[in-house]
Amino acid sequence: MQTAGLIFGILGGICAVIGGLTAGGVIPLLSAELTWMFWFILAGVFLLGSIAFNTNQGKGEYQ
Fold first, then answer.
1. Cβ neighbours for 49, distance < 8 A, ≥ 6 positions apart
2. Which of 24, 43, 54, 59 could cross-link to 5 by cystine, CB 3.0-4.6 Å?
3. First CA to last CA across the chain, in angstroms?
4. 6: left (phi > 0), else alpha (psi -120 to 50), else beta?
5. Nearest-angstrom CA–CA distance, 52 and 44
6. Contact 5, 47 (CB under 8 A)
7. What are phi and psi of 58, to 5 degrees?
8. Where are the alpha helices (DSSP H) in 1-63?
């Protein structure tokens, strides 16, 4: 489960960076729907998912 948390954390970080670059005008909008708000909300969802996966502490895992 910690691997999934790592993957979600990395994806959240990438989305946050893309959102910051889009908000700053460094990169243009990729599409009309992919605004800086979209990227920051997606980053928040991924980062919350990574927290959920990493706080599991092995409970409920079947080996």
1. 5, 8, 12
2. 54
3. 12
4. alpha
5. 12
6. no
7. 80, 5
8. 2-23, 36-54
pLDDT for the residue 54: 86
Q: Which two tokens stand for residue 33?
A: 């729907």
Model pTM greater than 0.85? no
| Amino acid 8: pLDDT | 94
Q: For Cα atoms 5, 7, 8, give the angle at the middle one, nearest 5 degrees.
A: 65
Where exactly are the structural domains of the chain? 2-54
Q: How far apart, in whole angstroms, are the C-alpha atoms of residue 28 and residue 17?
A: 14
- What pLDDT, in 10s, does the model give residues 1-57? 678 889 999 999 999 999 999 998 888 877 788 888 999 999 999 999 999 888 866
